[in-house]
Amino acid sequence: MSTNINSGQIAELEKQYRICLINSVLGYKSLNLLGTINKNGDTNLCVISSAFHLGANPPLIGMVMRPGREHNDTLANIQATGQFTLNNVLPAWYKQAHQTSASYPSGVSEFETCGFDAQYVPGFEAPFVQQSTVRIGLKLRETIPMEINRTTIVIGEIIEILVEDALIGQDGTIDHIHAETMTVAGLDAYFLPSPVGRLAYAKPDIEPHEINEP
Asked: Across the chain, which distance is largest between two alpha carbons, in Å?
């Protein structure tokens, strides 16, 4: 038995059911802790699942920010300082990471409230997460307001990558399995991915094959 849900039916769904359905329909998503700081030195941390690769030259990452609220400091901090960090989430810390999505009052640091330690590097203002194994520092390049739903697409350029040498392969690929990088489906279902295989660059008239195969 299968279910077909059309746009009219989606619009009539109970609000929370619709939110869960639409948020989970794409399956597994990137999971990161987004670190920011304001001009007064107050830190902010929130978990996001909207980051996406935008290009390698220049190295760009985009993410979608929800409509602004009075006590939502994240976007304001990014616009004020022009910097932010994205940090992977490890199994030992996913509950604390989830807690950063709580609606804390403006000025309250989720680093302190949720038990994370801020890490800094010289010449970069925004805080990294010490409890992460893959940390990315970005400078703001562009913000795109979306009229359709009042979200904002934030585009940042990678200017810092903090990762152990052992997690970077000879071809530059980061080993997220050994980094213990978690992923998320929907709003609250967290997973550890398992490897299936790496395929060689696709070319016409050549059958797909593993990278280590002839």
From this structure: 59
Which of 21, 182, 28, 19 lies closest to 95 in space, CA to CA? 182
Domain 26-191: give its CATH code: 2.30.110.10
* CA 120 to centroid of chain Cα atoms: 19
Helical (H) or strand (E) element with 48:
strand 43-48
pLDDT digits (tens, 9 = 90+) for 114-134: 999 999 999 999 999 999 999
Report residue 80 CA to chain centroid gap. 20
pLDDT tens per residue across span 45-88 = 999 999 999 999 999 999 999 886 666 789 999 999 999 999 99
* Contact criterion met (CB below 8 Å) for 134 and 92: no
- Of 184, 196, 175, 134, the closest CA to residue 30 belongs to 184
Record the pTM. 0.93
DSSP characters for 63-123? EEEPPP-TT--HHHHHHHHSEEEEEE--GGGHHHHHHTTS-PPTT--HHHHHT--EEEETT
